[in-house]
């Protein structure tokens, strides 16, 4: 499930990505009938996928980032079908194979969600 449509800008420790939610996305079917909303977990996953794109340049080819925790999650605004979000993710600290990031998700320029999360490098072996 890819939740990033495009990378808008990126530097060494920050990335800004965008996603537009189509009305036919599967999660709108039950969330909520008659008043569809993007589930909060989907908004968080979108930002964490943007974070994975940011980390891609820092990680060796044999590793992938795996989320290990989320902290201080604040939901501020509802996101509905047709809305476009921008996810800004900043790398705050790296300790060996642990990465600590901060995410802000905006809709129509207004904060929808903010949180901090951590990832660790999971080594993948070749088949």
Q: Which SSEs are present, and which pair or pack?
A:
Layout: E1 6-10, E2 14-20, H1 40-56, E3 63-75, E4 84-95, E5 98-107, E6 110-123
Antiparallel strand pairs: 1-2, 2-4, 3-6, 4-5, 5-6
How would you describe this structure to a colleague?
The protein is globular and about 45 Å long. It starts with 5 loop residues before the first strand and ends with a strand. 13% of the residues lie in helices and 48% in strands. It has one domain: Hotdog Thioesterase (Thiol Ester Dehydrase, Chain A), CATH 3.10.129.10. The protein has a 6-stranded antiparallel sheet, with helices on one face. The chain is mainly beta and 127 residues long. The protein is built from 1 helix and 6 strands, in the order ββαββββ.
Measured distance between first and last alpha carbons: 23 Å
DSSP summary, beta strand count: 6
Mean pLDDT, nearest integer?
A: 94
Strand content: over 45%
Measured on Cα atoms, how large is the radius of gyration? 15 Å
CATH topology: Thiol Ester Dehydrase, Chain A
Largest sheet: 6 strands, antiparallel
- So what's the oligomer here? single chain
Question: In the CATH hierarchy, what is the class?
Answer: Alpha Beta
Q: Biggest sheet, strands in spatial order?
A: 1-2-4-5-6-3
Count of helix runs: 1
What structural class results from the helix and strand content? mainly beta
Order of helices and strands: EEHEEEE
Shape field: globular
Provide the number of structural domains: 1
Helix content: 10-25%
Taking pLDDT < 50 over at least 5 consecutive residues as the criterion, the unreliable ranges are: none
- CATH homology superfamily: Hotdog Thioesterase
CATH architecture: Roll
């Amino acid at each position: 499930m890819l939740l990033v449509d495009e990378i808008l800008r990126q530097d060494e420790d920050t990335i800004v990505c965008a996603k537009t939610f189509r009305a036919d996305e599967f999660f709108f079917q039950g969330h909520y009938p008659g008043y569809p909303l993007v589930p909060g977990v989907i908004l968080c996953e979108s930002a964490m996928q943007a974070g994975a794109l940011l980390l891609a340049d820092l990680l060796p080819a044999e590793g992938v980032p795996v989320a290990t925790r989320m902290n201080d999650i604040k939901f501020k605004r509802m996101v509905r079908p047709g809305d476009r979000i921008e996810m800004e993710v900043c790398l705050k600290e790296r300790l060996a194979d642990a990465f600590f990031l901060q995410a802000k998700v905006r809709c129509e320029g207004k904060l929808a969600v903010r949180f901090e999360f951590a990832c660790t490098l999971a080594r993948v072996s070749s088949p």
